[in-house]
Amino acid sequence: MKGRVGWAEAIQRAFAREADVVPEGWMTLGEVAAELKKTKFHTCKLLHKMMRMGGAETRKFRTWVKDCRDARGSRGGYLRMNRYYRLVAKTADPARRK
């Protein structure tokens, strides 16, 4: 019976019309591109290289797209899983030093 309670909560959470709170330091591809003054295509290539080297990480958050409210106060738009990026401080690896 306890397993069902866990599933019910997970399903309710999955279909709730609530956006995730994006923590400080996470940026979308568009925000990173604007900061670098590069195209999204070029920025995507740079971020992919950084992630392979361990200098950046990615995570998806559920956020509102085309967020608006009508006269009654009902929320419009839709929730979407958006990819966010964050710089990672690399720690010095003593094994790599020689």
Give a quick rundown of the structure.
With 98 residues, the chain is an alpha+beta fold.
Describe the structure.
- The mean pLDDT is 82.
- The chain has helices spanning 2-15, 29-36, 40-53; strands at residues 56-69, 75-87.
- 37% of the residues lie in helices and 28% in strands.
- It starts with a helix and ends in an 11-residue tail after the last strand.
- Strands 1-2 form a two-stranded antiparallel sheet.
- The chain has a domain at 24-87: Arc Repressor Mutant, subunit A (Orthogonal Bundle), CATH 1.10.10.
- It has 98 residues and is of the alpha+beta class.
CATH topology of one domain: Arc Repressor Mutant, subunit A
Helix segment tally: 3
Strand order, largest beta sheet? 1-2
Order of helices and strands: HHHEE
| CATH architectural category of one domain | Orthogonal Bundle
> According to CATH, what is the class of one domain?
Mainly Alpha
Given the helix and strand composition, which structural class is it? alpha+beta
Rg: 19 Å
Shape: flat
Main beta-sheet annotation: 2 strands, antiparallel
- Flag low-confidence runs: none
How many angstroms separate the termini?
58 Å
Percent in helix = 25-40%
Percent range for β-strand residues = 25-35%
